[in-house]
Design a protein that fits this description.
Layout (H helix, E strand, L loop, with lengths): L4 E5 L4 H12 L3 E6 L11 E4 L5 H11 L3 E4 L6 H6 L1 H22 L4 E5 L16 H20 L2 E7 L1 E3 L7 H15 L4 E6 L3 E2 L1 E3 H14 L5 E4 L5 E2 H11 L5 E6 L24 H16 L1
Helix pairs in contact: 1-7, 2-4, 4-5, 6-9, 8-9
Protein name: NAD-dependent epimerase/dehydratase family protein
Family: Belongs to the NAD(P)-dependent epimerase/dehydratase family.
InterPro entries: Epimerase_deHydtase, NAD(P)-bd_dom_sf
């Protein structure tokens, strides 16, 4: 049986590294794409360097590889950076998606594409829900994907994951806190963990469960559909700090800057396929793996 050829953009990013490993083990012929040259998975994954904001370079990539499926993970996902350089966020998240979909439409129109959006998208019917340029860029990215699916009858599915956690390089709150604890353990940093609001509540989904969910969407997701992906078990920030205290090799205290609930907690619309996903990886295991990863960086 011929392997399905899968291009994964953003292959060297937090989710991309896990996705390359997972889909290779699942039997796909994986082509990892990133702007910077790199080697992924001990030569188990074919790697190509490509700037997705360069439409000629991108078109050549699709023409040469003719993928059966594309998992589009690449993008700028740092909210503060979107404030300082909003145009770069629009180019990286929105324009590059249009270039990618157009190249696929022209070169391999039967390819199934999974575009990964963000829980930080805003409601296009209420502009007051727009909080930052990053949200704008991801919302427009999804609108582009939906438009290409509608106008050109392409096979495009959209995933909208909640906060992804797990071992690896991440700017998420769990990784930031775990790194601080690892610095206390290994570098002698002050044994105080300062957080903004212990009662802030968010949904967390392990990145390894999310990648498994992406394969489900490749197999079962209907073209034009958007699927929320979450654990359905929101956690308070206090639960994260308590988990870290329970598994740390040292004792440390936790200080809270705020002790009231967040005024606004975004709620994802219901989804029949991947909402309230059964966690294959327990939350406590996610936190432990994140801490071990941060420890490894410091050793």
């Amino acid at each position: 049986m011929t392997k399905q050829k899968l291009i994964i953009t953003g292959a060297t990013g937090f989710t991309g590294i896990h996705a390359c490993r997972y889909f290779h083990q699942a039997g796909y012929e994986v082509i990892g794409v990133s702007r910077q040259p790199s080697k992924i998975g001990n030569n188990q994954v074919h790697f190509e360097s490509c700037d997705l904001t360069n439409k000629e370079e991108l078109s050549d990539l699709i023409q040469r590889n003719k993928p059966d499926r594309v998992l589009h993970l690449a993008g700028q996902n740092h909210v503060p950076s979107s404030w300082s350089n909003p145009i770069a966020s629009l180019e990286t998240n929105t324009i590059s998606t249009a270039y990618l979909l157009e190249a696929i439409r022209q070169q391999t129109p039967n390819c199934k594409v999974l575009v990964v959006g963000s829980a930080l998208q805003f409601d296009v019917n209420d502009i007051t829900t727009l909080d930052h340029p990053y949200s704008l860029s991801k919302t427009l990215q999804v609108l582009v994907a939906q438009s290409w699916e509608l106008l050109y009858e392409m096979n495009i599915v959209i995933a909208k994951p909640s906060n992804l956690i797990g071992p690896g390089k991440s700017n998420g709150v769990c990784s930031i806190l775990a790194r601080k604890v690892a610095e206390m353990e290994l570098l002698g940093a002050e044994k105080v963990l300062t957080v903004n609001n212990l009662l802030a509540q968010r949904d967390f989904l392990d990145v390894r469960d999310a990648v498994c969910g992406y394969e489900i969407l490749f197999k079962k997701g209907q073209s034009g559909s958007m699927h929320d992906m979450n654990s359905g078990l929101p956690k308070y920030l206090k639960e994260i700090t308590s988990s870290l205290q329970a598994i740390s090799s040292i004792d440390f205290t936790v200080e809270s800057v705020k002790d009231k609930l967040e005024e606004k907690i975004s709620k994802l619309p219901s989804d029949l396929l991947l909402e309230n996903m059964p966690a294959l990886i327990p939350f406590e295991k996610s936190i432990e793996d994140i801490l071990n990863y941060q420890r490894g960086l410091l050793r």
